[in-house]
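ARCHIVE ENTRY
Sequence with per-residue tokens
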Amino acid sequence: MERRCFFLALDSRFSRKKVEKSGTEKLPPSTFKDLIGAYKFYDKKSDELKTASLAQWLLESGRGTSNLAKEHLNFGGIKWREEMKPYATPVEYVASDGSDIYCHFKSIQHFIEGYWTFINRPPYKGYEANRTAEGFLRHVGPIYATDPAYTQKVIALIPEARGLLGVVDPGDNTAPQPKEFDKPPVRWFPSQKYSSRNGVKVNLVVCHYTVSRTAQSALDTLSKPLAQGGREASAHYLIDKDGTIYQLVSELNKAWHAPNVNRRSVGIEHVAMPGERLEAKQEKASVALISYLLSKYGLRHTNITAHRWTGQATSCPGNLFGPDGSEAEFLAWRKANFGKDFA
């Protein structure tokens, strides 16, 4: 295996004692489910490349059950390379093929970034020319592992990886087509706080709440220029309690509402204070706007999320979608309102 050809005797830059010590850093509890959750919102690679890499991680980590995954957040069986320094530390680990030096990743996000840094190395040059998950694996697989059956083993896991990420096979012509919905009436309230998407396509709708009592207060916050002391925050839309929809930023541009996913998402704010639920007219307007966005961009109901579940530590969207403010309540609301038309 290419990733398993490192020999400690060939590198004098660290001693075995140092390597062993580096692996004692205690990691917060994380699971394969956490990895999948974070990867859904990773927007630096296409869905096809994400599908292929997740299929690899399913195989390499035994779906997150291997000790290397549980103890070192190393879901890819990645051995130490100098390029891994920003993301990991070296650790001695005994795998099925013996003891060697592997990567101990600092967090799930560090693992994801580390994996792609590993793949961007010269042995894998040209992988991005393969636009399908299977093409990527046929290019990378023979280099990544010496097992002649490795590539086919991973390819067999592509459907499972697609399901976990919630992405559609681009070659599946039987996938249900979403209905068409018109854009509901909006009032423009322009904000200058936006930037370029740099060519990234929209594939996500993110729901927020304003933590304000009135739409005007929220509009002022979302539009006040930085030069006048305004916050670095904006959104594409704001929905008042009476159902009025305001548009602040063109969908062609990137609003500043959820840093992890700004480039590929449309952000919708809902006027509400902590503990408040969606008002009836507000909810009706929100469903109409989101339905239009899903129809416009050809998305599924699983492409709707809320701020808290984009990988940021925040209370947003509060209790908009249920008394407990839980993800389960949000998912139930999403399925009830969009699951039929945007399966």
